[in-house]
Amino acid sequence: MSGARRRRIGVMGGTFDPIHNGHLVAASEVAHRFKLDEVIFVPTGRPWQKDQAESKPGHRPVSPAEDRYLMTVIATASNPQFSVSRVDIERNGDTYTVDTLRDLRAILPDAELFFITGADALESILSWQNWEGLFELAHFIGVSRPGYELNATHLAQHLETLPPDTLQMLEIPALAISSTDCRERAHAGRPVWYLVPDGVVQYINKRQLYRTRRASSPGVSAP
Ligand SMILES: Nc1ncnc2c1ncn2[C@@H]1O[C@H](COP(=O)(O)OP(=O)(O)OP(=O)(O)O)[C@@H](O)[C@H]1O
Ligand SMILES: O=C(O)c1ccc[n+]([C@@H]2O[C@H](COP(=O)([O-])O)[C@@H](O)[C@H]2O)c1
């Protein structure tokens, strides 16, 4: 008897500080083109490369994980194909994609995973923890992003021994939106409407996120 088709699950990892429409379009387009059953958004717990960059003068620390998680839930709630996982925010220590994928494989042992990453993140993947092990855990889909070239020739030589569909590229509708720009807008009192979902605009206002350059906002408390 032939086995059932394996569920095809997209994994969209990100710091999502805040989640914006560029993330949502990327996930939606990959879901359609790769016939995915679902996309799981995975907010990072401790994004070690961003933490390092943001310890430089003039940069602000990453917002509390619980705020980033809740914005991701709000942004994805209306799409039945989208869900949000807490695996990265519940794991102690720095967030490594190799752990994300291992955790998701343990939860979804029969699924085929497709990790979605923008062209900028793809450029730096050789600096990720245990990157050689990543491609055995999931397919990788690199998506275009304004300002970055969608090119993985630097990776190709390292992937020669792996199956040809290990890493695939996809041009998506260009949205020149970044979380950095959204934070700077919110900080300066400029609008973020239509760059992020409406509920995320309201959450940013309610929690007064990005008003200061320091992470001075209190933690999320239960209602
Ligand atoms: N506009 C976009 N188009 C396509 N991919 C994107 C876009 N913005 C972010 N991504 C991808 O989404 C993933 C998560 O991104 P992240 O949460 O770091 O957002 P960001 O906008 O890059 O944040 P920041 O400006 O703080 O660096 C990464 O793989 C990133 O490349
Ligand atoms: O595994 C790593 O070492 C690693 C280093 C940097 C980024 N990542 C992952 O890449 C995704 C996008 O990260 P970021 O920092 O651009 O929001 C997110 O899922 C991160 O956990 C992973």
UniProtKB/TrEMBL annotation:
Its EC number is 2.7.7.18. GO terms for biological process: NAD+ biosynthetic process. Pathway: Cofactor biosynthesis; NAD(+) biosynthesis; deamido-NAD(+) from nicotinate D-ribonucleotide: step 1/1. Residues 11-185 form the Cytidyltransferase-like domain. It comes from the Bacteria. Catalyzes the reversible adenylation of nicotinate mononucleotide (NaMN) to nicotinic acid adenine dinucleotide (NaAD). Belongs to the NadD family. This is Probable nicotinate-nucleotide adenylyltransferase. It comes from Gordonia asplenii.
